[in-house]
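Q: Predict the bound structure with ISE.
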Amino acid sequence: MSEGQSDELRVAVLGVGKMGSFHVDSLTRRTRGARVSVVSDCSDEQAHRVADPVGARVVAEPAEAVTADDVDAVVIASPGTAHESQILACLEAGKPVLCEKPLTTEAATAAAVYRRETALGRRLVQVGFMRRFDHEYAALQQMIAGGELGAPLMLHCTHRNPAVPEFFDSEYMIRDSVVHEADSARFLLGEEIAAVSVVRGRPTAAAPAGVSDPMLVLFEAASGALVTIEIFVRTGIAYEVRTEVVAEHGSAIIGLDQNVVAKRVGGTWGGTITPDFVARFGQAYDDQMQRWADAARRGIATGGDAVDGPGTWDGYAAAAICEAGVAAVVKGERIETGMEDPSGASGATGDRSGASGATGDDS
Ligand code: ISE
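A: Predicted complex:
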């Protein structure tokens, strides 16, 4: 976005499966001041299917997209295993990034990305923990932080998917689904998670052999506050994500799907449940994109920070929690996250937690 050329943010989207295609649509039709200039995907056919209608170029190599002259910023929606090298390439090129979760697949590599960005002296990487931009999550976070409910003692989280592919085993359920609860718990409580335990219960008949679905996950926060998570990804019903906070002076719950018209037909009454996460969190994904695009443009213009939301520290924290969660699943033991500040400074939360970084109030 060189001065005088165009004040539109020209974005490369790496990976155009379900989420990448959604982001291309969001950038093209619902984001002000941005457009997709380049698309890259391991399937050339899929890349063209998404890029051609929006007038974007297709390049085969993600690295070429990152350094291209017609790319100011990058959205990474490729498989998690590709994130580390793609993010490092963006940091090298000094280009702002919005990266889908996970930041990287291991805590150690996520910590290395955090350190690399810290050494640059500029925040360029935003992690796609979109729930922080959802109006209900943002309101609950503000309610807790405002003190109205008193100290939060417990969070009870329900995370149910209607169906998932066969490869979703118990470990993948932690890494792909519980990862959102890891970030939400940190965001809502404003503190780090110290330990994780998992109880593998009676599996649904829909689960493949050896897969514990549902499971009960317990996070212990640094203050001692507890977080219970029911993770159930083969309910056969719909997409249901609820969170209740129980605090010293009251409780509050979000995710009741009550913003609907309750109809009476055929002897029953009621509304509908959102079918999937794009339907449930569409507003959050779009607001996340707008705020990231605005922040990226500001960061490019000023040479300063280019994110407005969770960053590399949050990505590292979620990776450390999931790593402990996977070990808890495998060993059947309580596992400490052992989180430390990878920069070597003391204190685990501070400004880096990003807990107040995306309240959704101006979206
Ligand atoms: C999926 O990958 C997501 O990111 C959704 O937000 C989550 O709710 C779902 O469980 C995951 O599989």
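A: The longest helix spans residues 277-302.
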